[in-house]
Amino acid sequence: MPRTATTLDAADTSLRQQVYASLREALTSGRFAPGQKVTFRYVAGVLGVSLTPVREAMRRLVAEGAFEMNPNRSVRVPLMTRDKVLELRDIRMELEGLAAAKAALAATRSQIAGIRHAAREIIVARNRGDGATDRQKVREFHFAVYAAAGQPTLLRLIEGLWLQTGPYMNLLYPDFISSSRGPAGRQRLIEALQAGDAATARREMENDIRRALSYVAGLADENGNIAPAIPVTAGKRRRPSASAAVFELQVN
Amino acid sequence: MPRTATTLDAADTSLRQQVYASLREALTSGRFAPGQKVTFRYVAGVLGVSLTPVREAMRRLVAEGAFEMNPNRSVRVPLMTRDKVLELRDIRMELEGLAAAKAALAATRSQIAGIRHAAREIIVARNRGDGATDRQKVREFHFAVYAAAGQPTLLRLIEGLWLQTGPYMNLLYPDFISSSRGPAGRQRLIEALQAGDAATARREMENDIRRALSYVAGLADENGNIAPAIPVTAGKRRRPSASAAVFELQVN
DNA sequence: AATGCATTTTTGTGATCACAAATCCCACGA
DNA sequence: TCGTGGGATTTGTGATCACAAAAATGCATT
Questions:
Q1: How many angstroms separate the CA of B41 from the C1' of C8?
Q2: From the C1' of C16, which residue's alpha carbon is nearest?
Q3: Which element (helix H / strand E) includes B80?
Q4: Ranges of CATH 1.10.10.10 domains, chain B
């Protein structure tokens, strides 16, 4: 089942939570153009709710770094730069490396089975050339490892970091992926988890993140800016449908 | 000057920001009892504002882990446990160690001078037996190092972690402090920063955090719970004064 | 005195309104 | 052609209201 949220938000049915989830989904799947201004009233209109839950959801995303706020109090999708990618790379290597190490010490047999299953699904999607499923499964694989670490605060921090890098992971496809030694690394990671070898698990995780984000950093132009991966759903007009509303990709 | 906020919130004069700052200050100085229920209307009453800015400030603090929310939608101050302290210890060692390493590569001469100054002020406060100033200066010392790393996202993450451990750092006084080798460690850290020795800077920072938080974890009772350091300001009734309002310490 | 139940009060949620600051837009002049 | 100024519009902010869920309270019964 394709759950995107991983924290224990459990049964929060509040509108605010739904708005938060919608915006999060729209951000990670790249339905907002970086630099795009996103107004409260626009989001409220698209989702068919009032300003109140939108404000709270968007403020939270600002606090998490998924949106940023100009001094002149307007909310924008952050632009990605080489420096920011490199900063996120180093932070993620630390935290996700730590999570992998903890997972090696704490993972149960069934958790390891789940991780192994996700790894196989990556291969399947990749052999089919299905990039979207591939990315989804990569996410599931990683978070299966992090969940096995059993550290809730750590998990929440990592989710926040994925929210910031998410829109740019499309850039890994297809060039980086095809030349990648990802499957072998994941295999070594799984074996380390099973053997309880924390140091190896950490090293494999760090290597995976280093290679991917270093590649993305290399895509920066001469000003250090990184263009986002443009999704396919531009143009089409949609009317505000309550829950599963979709955002336009408008470049201003 | 005793600034507590460290991020570039610059000139955000919004009520929401003021409420956020007030609550943050109240939390870090331990004016709320862990487990205490904190209602929106109570905070709004104490600070003399409407619910709107209070809601947004408190939701942000919930997202940051400084408050937690029951499934029955009521906001409480989180209880600290041994497991949580140990998790925070390991995360902080990674991130603050990384920041120290980056600072060793990036700090300017004037930044190092500022760090050295803060270290001296710790000694002064400690010799006077002034615990409150001591803690404040320790905070300034650490964040002077982290600021020198020049990594804004990393800085923001570290601030969030300090917000969670903050109320419990009082527990280090006076026993841990007197038996501590802190000053010598800080001296070695400063020398590593000056020499551009990232590995040593990281190691010293990691050791500092490991020792402090391991000590706090050792204070847990048989159930794994850790009692907060109770501040001195209990009891007295106060009326809502607009900006510098103080919160009661009410234990329910 | 303890317990079960109904009523009252408290409390979070979402919508709406008023207002000021920021932004936009277009005519006007150099 | 390119600013430039000022009025109209947009947009974030904070207050207030209505409502439903949750918690507290009171009361009767055993």
A1: 19
A2: A50
A3: strand B80-81
A4: 13-78+228-252
